[in-house]
Design brief:
With about 600 residues, this protein is an alpha+beta fold. It folds into three domains: about 270 residues, Alpha/Beta hydrolase fold, catalytic domain (Rossmann fold); about 60 residues, no CATH class; about 210 residues, Sandwich (Jelly Rolls), CATH 2.60.120.260. Helix content is about 20%, strand content about 30%. It contains 14 helices and 29 strands. Strands 17, 18, 19, 20, 22, 23, 24, 25, 27, 28 and 29 form an eleven-stranded mixed beta sheet that branches. It has a six-stranded mixed beta sheet with strand order 1-2-4-3-5-7. The protein has a four-stranded mixed beta sheet with strand order 11-12-15-16, with helices on one face. A hairpin with a 5-residue loop joins strand 23 and strand 24. It is globular and about 80 Å long.
């Protein structure tokens, strides 16, 4: 697995090929399959897919389809499951991929093409006029993209880990990841390129080549052997703009939604920001009639786990209750929304969330996200002017600061020592603390006092920090950890920021050297964990220096075009005094 930044990019990324767990998936119920079904769309292109029907079908049925750039054959297990459980299923290649005609441009054509697919399906004699969608990641995104076109026969969507253009794809907070070219290569041409995509050693070597030679990020496609017009086009849109806006629902589209929706995401899902953006915007702009029928599941899962849960993620192991049969849940949802069945018993309230940690490992329920979070606990930064090491750190405490010396750190983009630490971490990205213990002068660390009692933390963290620096731009990374009584570490959440976008992701404003600015980190993922009695909190603030990310060389130019020759060392000053009270908040439920 590529060792990618915690919470940014997790195992399997946009792909989930795991077989279904449900016992019905190995049923002997007969299924008939039609391969190469041709579906016309409005510009004359024909899309192709594989159709799965119950072998004993006697009357028209609802149809469920997944719209994928990963080749329809990857969803054979799902097709068999749904066909054996009373649904017609279609796995269909998006335009330009697999057997479908046209050219593939990520995220651009799925809405219009999907509208035509829905309406074509509704007219087939074996369809009863009700059409739904299934899928996660890219196939979660395109459910929202099709919804915004409002095909009359779309009855429901169940987007899992849905990527949101301009929010978490192709970058997060305007910072690109090296993985972008790996994914782009996987979806280049018409075949799956799965072997190449999965060769993590190859990709790590290529990312390191860029990193160690201090080459511009825009050359990564060439370095990886796939000069890509798609990659270059995405780099030409480094901020949320009209290009991405056209791919997602508008505010007025959310007002028009009139059918039930089930959103699924995970604490450790790198597309959680996108999934939650759709959900929160619907809650903000949707009608009073529709929003009560939008349900949300927040499991202890990584990206792939939002379709097939796994008890082990990043070095953590979760309880048996985390292994929800999501095939069965989908079937129950479709039964409720398209066959007048009962609402799935699992959906006791509109929000279901899983609490992880010692003494926890169970599901809880709430009527809304806002109903979950308790009173924010505020932790102010304190130190004697030196907090550059986990073993001689600053303090996180409830008292507001008075007259205190600031802390300072230095980020040199030409320092490549962090690469070896990053490679050594392996797959235990949530429990390994090598990076936190090997800062090489790049970062500041603060610890809280031990918790007197166990406490549930559920919701969003927020960090406000006052900083000055001597360069026009740099990147920041904030990571919050639980440090257990035995010294082991668990990542709770992290956030990234590019300094020039501190006020707006859509408009850049370079930093004036020496000017003290307020930085508000408010893009942490939603999480739920029961922190143990005796545990402490650790807050780490640094500038990321990773081969998994587009490196900021601090010159203030176009970051994707910067290289080692543009490098400037950043000297960052972190203030925490009465005029500049830096602090972070955690939503403690009890």
């Amino acid at each position: 697995m590529t060792r990618r930044l915690i919470g940014l990019i997790l195992i399997c990324a946009f792909l989930c090929l795991n077989p279904a767990r449900s016992q019905d998936s190995i049923s002997t119920k007969p299924v008939t399959i039609e391969w190469g079904v041709k579906i016309p769309v409005r510009d004359g292109i024909r899309l192709k897919g594989t159709l799965y029907k119950p072998g004993d079908v006697k009357e028209p049925l609802p149809v469920v389809f997944t719209f994928t750039p990963y080749i329809a054959d990857a969803y054979h297990d799902r097709g068999m499951y749904f066909a054996r459980n009373g649904y017609i299923f279609l796995g269909i290649d998006v335009r330009g991929r697999g057997n479908s005609g046209g050219a593939f441009e990520p995220l651009v054509n799925e809405g219009r093409d999907g509208y035509d697919v829905v309406e074509w399906l509704a007219q087939q004699p074996w369809c009863n006029g009700k059409v739904a969608m299934w899928g996660g990641s890219y196939a979660g995104f395109d459910q929202w993209s099709v919804l915004k076109e409002f095909p009359p026969h779309l009855a429901t969507i169940v987007p899992a880990a849905a990527a949101h253009p301009g929010v978490d794809f192709p970058c997060l907070n305007n910072i690109f990841t090296s993985y972008e070219i790996q994914w782009d290569t996987y979806t280049s041409g018409v075949t799956s390129n799965l072997k190449l995509f999965s060769d993590e050693g190859y990709w790590t070597d290529r990312f390191l080549e860029m990193y160690l030679k201090h080459l511009p990020f825009k050359e990564l496609d060439r370095i990886c052997g796939n000069p890509s017009a798609v990659f270059q086009k995405l780099l030409s849109h480094p901020t949320p703009d009209a290009y991405y806006d056209a791919m997602a629902p508008r505010d007025e589209d959310y007002r028009r939604i009139n059918f039930p929706i089930l959103t699924i995401t995970g604490h450790y899902d790198d597309d959680q920001p996108g999934a939650m953006e759709y959900f929160k915007r619907h809650m903000t702009y949707g009608s009073e009639e529709a929003t009560p029928n939008h349900f949300l599941i927040l499991g202890p899962w990584d990206h792939a786990g939002t379709r097939t849960p796994n008890r082990e993620v990043g070095g953590l192991r979760f309880g048996e209750a985390s292994l929800v049969d999501l095939n069965e849940l989908h079937k129950g949802w479709y039964d409720w929304t398209m066959k007048d069945g009962m609402k799935p018993e699992f959906l006791k309230k509109r929000v279901a969330y899983y609490v992880v940690g010692p003494g926890a490992e169970f599901w809880k329920y709430a009527d809304s996200l806002e109903a979950i979070s308790g009173r924010p606990h505020v932790y102010y930064l304190h130190s004697g002017g030196s907090a550059n090491d986990a073993f001689s750190s600053g303090l996180l405490g409830p008292e507001k600061p008075g007259r205190e010396k600031p802390d300072r750190y230095m980020y040199d983009p030409l320092d490549t020592r962090p690469a070896e630490v990053e490679r050594a971490a392996g797959e235990n990205i949530l429990t390994d603390q090598r990076a936190a213990l090997n800062l090489f002068g790049n970062g500041v660390v603060y610890h809280s006092e031990p918790f007197a009692e166990a406490a549930e933390i559920s919701g969003y963290a927020k960090f406000i920090c006052w900083m000055a620096m001597d360069v026009p731009d740099t990147d920041f990374q904030v990571i919050i950890f639980e440090i257990m009584p035995d010294g082991t570490s668990v990542v709770l959440a992290q956030d990234l920021m590019r300094a020039r976008y501190r006020d707006s992701l859509r408009e850049e404003k370079l930093v004036k050297p020496g000017e003290i600015n307020r930085y508000e980190f408010k893009s942490f993922p939603w999480f739920s964990r029961r922190v143990s009695k005796g545990s402490r909190l650790r807050l780490l603030l640094k500038s990321p220096n990773s081969f998994a990310l587009e490196k900021n060389y601090n010159s203030g130019g176009v970051v994707a075009e910067e290289s080692g020759k543009d490098s400037r060392t950043a000297h960052v000053t972190v203030y925490h005094d009465s005029e500049h009270p830096s602090f972070f908040e955690l939503p403690v439920v009890n």
